[in-house]
């Protein structure tokens, strides 16, 4: 299958921009909030409506594509052959409900398992991060330079609150050797911090739609994106995901081996 990555990027940006505008217009509406796996795993009527809209746009423009969506409006996908879109309509739903900021809309496009376009919209700040290996990575219209390859000790580490609290996978040990921890509660926003060089790493338990878009942009900029063991990510299952500069990634791998 031959695809035009620039055309895909252009369409995704238009659709996500429109979805983001709709969310901002209804940010303070009364929401229908339900729980999924636990009381902190929330879903709202806006999550569902946003995903349904984005999936409809993708199906109309790319009828041959497969779609993996968080809220179930996509397909049952068994492999990554052909064109596959990963859709996260509201990443950071708890923040959307409680804070009214620090949440994102994300779509990652893959062709035969290779990432070609990633788009993350920080909805409230109206910052759209987009890009891919064919044309680089941008924040709105400004191209992002590859982050400096700094050590663990020289930067901030974004982490999942539960992993840090319980020191799962030695996350507290990583933080102890960094300049400090940051907990935002949105994988999409965290990925944007790392690709800008604001944080030099991020670690969390994520689903494919949580990391698909960010992985494409991070790897385009020379960052490492693996599971906690340093292995390639499985795009069809949940993982403990680590995105970091090469030096930070290597140092975290060393700490992991020392504690194993």
Characteristics of this structure?
260 residues; alpha+beta; Fructose-1,6-Bisphosphatase, Chain A, domain 1; D-Maltodextrin-Binding Protein, domain 2; 35% helix
In terms of topology, how is this protein built?
Layout: H1 5-25, E1 33-35, E2 42-44, H2 45-61, E3 66-69, E4 83-91, H3 93-98, E5 104-111, E6 114-122, E7 127-132, E8 136-139, E9 142-143, E10 157-159, H4 161-166, H5 171-176, E11 181-182, H6 187-195, E12 201-206, H7 208-220, E13 224-227, E14 239-244, H8 246-258
Parallel strand pairs: 3-4, 10-11, 10-12
Antiparallel strand pairs: 1-2, 4-5, 5-6, 6-7, 7-8, 8-9, 12-14, 13-14
Helix pairs in contact: 1-2, 6-7
Can you identify the CATH class of the largest domain?
Alpha Beta
* Percent in helix: 25-40%
Q: Give the structural class.
A: alpha+beta
- CATH fold-level topology of the largest domain: Fructose-1,6-Bisphosphatase, Chain A, domain 1
The number of distinct structural domains comes to 2
Largest sheet: 7 strands, mixed
The CATH architecture of the largest domain:
2-Layer Sandwich
Instruction: Tell me what portion of residues adopts beta-strand conformation.
Output: 25-35%
What does the radius of gyration come to? Answer: 17 Å
Succession of helices and strands: HEEHEEHEEEEEEHHEHEHEEH
What's the total helix number? 8
CATH superfamily of the largest domain: Fructose-1,6-Bisphosphatase, subunit A, domain 1
